[in-house]
Amino acid sequence: MEKIIVEGGRKLTGEVIVSGAKNAVLPILAATVIGANESTIFNVPKLKDVEVMEKILLSLGLNIKRIDNMMWIDSKPLNNIKIPEELVREMRSSIILMGAMLARTGEVIASYPGGCEIGPRPIDMHLKGLRELGAEIEESHGFIYAKAKELKGCEIQLDYPSVGATENIMLAATRAKGTTVIRNAAREPEIVDLQNYLNKAGAKISGAGTSVIIIEGVNEFKDVSHNTIPDRIVAGTYMVASAITGGEIIIKNVVIEHLQAIIAKLKEAGCIIYNDNNSLKVIAPKKINSIEMIQTLPYPGFPTDMQAQMMALLTIANGTSIISETVFENRFKHAEELIRMGANIKIFGRVAVIKGVKELTGAKVSAKDLRGGASLILAGLAARGTTVVDNVHHVERGYENFHLVLEGLGANIEKIN
Ligand code: UD1
């Protein structure tokens, strides 16, 4: 089992270049099946989740070539409608292939993704939307079988702005007959990136980034090349790395607009942040200020994917902070591990109360999920003594060479098998 060992107490300084966004590239890779065309995608991060998506596309018959951070995909040879069960289990978000496959072949078989560490994460809104577009969906023995003679544009009102459901419906509607309107759509930047990719390939989609997305179905697609947006959560994580170590880090290849909620909270914590067009510099304060309230919300609210990292930071703040997690039901698993490192955290359902302590102390802790794992490594950077984080495979789902980048910034960190 891979572990990360951190000797805390070093200030991190230097520069980081942020990779392409995992949550943008995954739906874009799913979208490549739709058009029976060739796609060249740049800025594709080298991550476990991207590898799983690549394996799924290969199993569906697609031709793929990967050179560094470029991926070339030819979806003409698609010859399979079944998404391998073990790969769906490895990566929940592979479920967005349902919409893309329905658009391309009118038929798809996937296994049920099941729950995961951060809550039950149902897919009811995905299935409801696909049914409204005309798909017949049967769920039995853990499999989902979806079929549509013809997908027809319609008006879909989402009960909640789910990122995955918005993407799944957009993908299916791309080739549907007529116009689809998604209301209460998720507004995340990754959805705008998906719209941009699809429109370059010939789709007619507008409104992504707002809560109403309009998709006019088309049938002609062309070859496309696309540059993935930078990963705002990776950027945010390195911003916290600077803050928590008393450091000074320059973060390059960012879209400032996507980071506003994170910038605002780090400023409240006392950080000084400078930015120009596509880079920023985070200078830590001498002592972190507590934050009265962080509430996770759909974009442009504070991202749930940054909640764990901010919790790690607030464990050493001057005073008491409150975090309210409104997006996922069970996303405080990292709290009990932070407590092992000396943090003072109390959980009341979806609310965490964090009373700052003078310092954290190194301990043996376990990563339970991707962002929670990253938060423990961040805490280890600030703690006195040695922290050992096991189960770090979770962290590798979302960060390219995390320990090497941190080492490059001055951390005393190593990974062992
Ligand atoms: C995506 C991101 C994930 C991020 C999350 C919220 C990807 C690959 N993953 O996940 O990193 O944390 O957005 O920003 O992009 N829900 C339902 N029924 C549904 C769908 C969702 O009840 O059919 C609930 C979920 O359980 C959760 C909430 O809606 O409580 C938000 O989920 P959603 O926005 O769909 O997140 P994902 O797309 O799974």
Profile the largest sheet. 4 strands, mixed
Label the overall shape: elongated
| Average pLDDT for all residues | 95
Largest sheet, order of strands side by side?
A: 21-22-1-23
- Distinct compounds present: uridine-diphosphate-N-acetylglucosamine
* CATH fold field value of the largest domain: UDP-n-acetylglucosamine1-carboxyvinyl-transferase, Chain
Please compute the radius of gyration using only Cα atoms.
21 Å
Q: Give the low-pLDDT segments.
A: none
SS content category: alpha+beta
**Domain unit count:** 2
Number of helices: 14
Structure explained in plain terms:
With 417 residues, the protein is of the alpha+beta class. The protein has two domains: 3-19 and 230-416, UDP-n-acetylglucosamine1-carboxyvinyl-transferase, Chain (Alpha-beta prism); 22-215, UDP-n-acetylglucosamine1-carboxyvinyl-transferase, Chain (Alpha-beta prism), CATH 3.65.10.10. The chain is built from 14 helices and 23 strands. The protein has helices at residues 22-31, 48-59, 85-90, 97-105, 124-132, 163-173, 189-200, 232-244, 260-268, 307-314, 333-340, 370-382, 393-396, 402-408; strands at 3-7, 13-17, 38-42, 63-67, 70-74, 107-111, 136-140, 143-147, 155-157, 179-183, 204-206, 212-216, 224-227, 248-252, 272-275, 279-283, 294-296, 320-325, 344-348, 351-355, 364-366, 386-390, 412-416. It has a four-stranded mixed sheet, covered by helices on one side. Strands 2-14-16-15 form a four-stranded mixed sheet, covered by helices on one side. Strands 4-5-3-13 form a four-stranded mixed sheet. Helix 6 (163-173) links the parallel strand 9 (155-157) and strand 10 (179-183). Helix 1 runs parallel beside helix 7 (189-200), helix 5 (124-132) runs parallel beside helix 6 and helix 11 (333-340) packs parallel to helix 12. The longest helix has 13 residues, at 232-244. The N and C termini lie close together (6 Å). Bound molecules: uridine-diphosphate-N-acetylglucosamine (UD1). Residues 23, 26, 93, 119, 121-126, 160, 162-165, 186, 304-305, 327-328 line the site of uridine-diphosphate-N-acetylglucosamine (UD1). Residues 23, 26, 93, 119, 121-126, 160, 162-165, 186, 304-305, 327-328 line the site of uridine-diphosphate-N-acetylglucosamine.
